[in-house]
Amino acid sequence: MSITFVIPGPLREFTDGQTDVVINVKPGTVGEALGLLWQRYPGLKDRIMTEQGEVRQHINIFAGEENIKYTGGLHTQLNNVDEIYIIPAVSGGINN
Question: N or C, which terminus of the chain has less Cβ within 10 Å?
Fold first, then answer.
């Protein structure tokens, strides 16, 4: 059993350019899965988490198709989830 993290372009410099990071252990929660990801790529942690241990405001994390903001946060269970998506918010643009 494993879990796959899908890493966005802006964070790939911290995963040696990898788009997908596979953790060959099936953790019980998103928080446990992230802890395993930090062990492999510690530089990601400060980009995703605050000093208080919360997901940064501009980062969205999806366990499968569900945003963890609405499913229990870091305590979200990974029972039927095989992928975790880390998605930074994008803003800006041109006013017409």
Answer: C
Mean per-residue pLDDT pooled into runs of 10, the chain (96 residues):
94 96 94 96 96 94 96 94 92 65
Going by the DSSP 8-state scheme, the letter that residue 54 receives in this structure is: -
Burial (0-12, 13-18, 19+ Cβ within 10 Å), 76: buried
Structural class in CATH, domain 3-88:
alpha beta
Instruction: State residue 26's pLDDT score.
Output: 86
Strands 3-6, 83-88: pairing kind? parallel
* Short-list 34, 40, 22, CA closest to 73: 34
